[in-house]
Amino acid sequence: MDLSIVVPVYNESENIDPLLSELDGVLADELDYEVIFVDDGSTDNTFQLLSGLTSQYPRLRVLRHPQNLGQSAALLTGVRAAQADWVASLDGDGQNDPADLLQFWRLAKRRTNPPGFISATVASERTPRPGYSPRALPTRSALDCCGTARPTPTAASNSSSDTCF
Fold it and tell me: What is the pTM of this model?
């Protein structure tokens, strides 16, 4: 597997299917990847929606915090569960363009001593999806080089829907 994409989410049910569809359209023919959505204790139907989409998107893995622990904790949970040597992150609210992941992937692979983590928090001039309401202004960072070491995996299993952390 080339890449694990970690997507922390909290009450993002309206953005889940469009984001998965866009990721699949951009990456399906380019990379062997998995998408790990970490539901951070959502109070809407985010977790149920994600769990129901696992048959439509076989590369989808769904993890869940029983309560809201914050975006950083959700990201850490996803990174620990990642199966690929490379890990990327995307925000779950649609503010990042999934096509940027492929560009970052190609850029990182050309480096002599590449990092093991790609941060795709780059949406800047992106046209929002119809009905999309941004919750935060997009950030501009090109490539977040966090080194090659990965955290040791925890008890998060490989099944498509788990409660963890």
Answer: 0.72
